[in-house]
Amino acid sequence: MIKKTYLLFVVLFFSLSNVFSQENIVYQKGIIFPVRVSIVDEEDRKITRNTEIEANGRYYSFPNVKGNFIIKVKVGDEIRVSHPDFETVYYTIKSSEDIKVVVKDYLDTRKSSSKLKTTSKRIQTDFYLVHLDSATFYKNKNIDKSLSFIEKALKNKESKKRNAATYKLLADIYLHWKQYDLAVYNYKLSYQIYKDVTTKNLLAEALFLLENYTESEQVYQELKDEKLSNYERIKVFEGLGDVFFATKKNDASVKNYQNALKIANKGLITSKITDLNSKIANVFASKGETNKAETLFKSSLNLAEKESTSRALEEEEKVADFYNSNRRFDDEIQLRKKSLIKAKEQQSNKKI
Questions:
Q1: Rounded to two decimals, what is the model's pTM?
Q2: Full residue range of the structural domain in which residue 101 is found
Q3: pLDDT tens, 287-304?
Q4: I need a labelling partner for 65 at 20 to 30 A (CA). Which of 173, 218, 224, 298 fits?
Q5: Which of 85, 107, 129 is the last residue of a domain?
């Protein structure tokens, strides 16, 4: 039994031989383009179930019919490829190259099960990724169904990486349903099993939402010394800004938001530039520096309108509240009327 466990460990924890280019069109800085990513084993079989690719806060979990992931990126963007059965890999986009991640010594238990003796335990192990996939599918739809699949995924003895991934997903579920105490507990358990900076970042966020500002700040401060992607580093400084704003340390809050904004501007991460301008504006508004706040709110509003209607409506709500708090009721009414028209148009477009 010990020998089998050892062999399973060696098979699941691989070294990566990654990234080759088939096409090489170099785009200008800031131009968004699609890139095809495939994750395969050494026999060139696609690994798709429970694979997650993150690029600047956007998550891609579903491949196309050919088993490839189509992601939208810019030159200089960092992507993260993660899976319960192999180590996370980071890669910086250099051109429109197709990216192939080759996983060495990967054992796809579903495909290899015919070569092994079929036992009830082996069958349950084969279904681990299926259970995790189902839990993810129901995460935002039905908490009871999602938790039932998590329970199934935890029934058998799995590798450390798999167990950590399961507890992280469990924490993600609780975070979505605003059960922050349970989210914190399971993020801590996941991180204790397998050290992963993404999990630690989410732990700091959950602690903040739980209003445990002291521990949240501590975790964020520790993350500053970790090897992080640009987007992860933005999240750390932004998180610290949130903590300091909540604890009325306005100067420290602005400093950390500005640190995050520098990285976002350099990487042309528009969504975070919008968020951070808005958050800095909130700090200035709370300090009574209305001119600075209004300038930043206008900037964030312009950026939000370029992103999407939903993001623009969200930002318009913040600016309208700002006008209200400063007794600028005419401006508030005008903006809210504009938002109402925009919201109706958005609803009409959805029905078409």
A1: 0.81
A2: 10-107
A3: 999 999 999 999 999 999
A4: 173
A5: 107
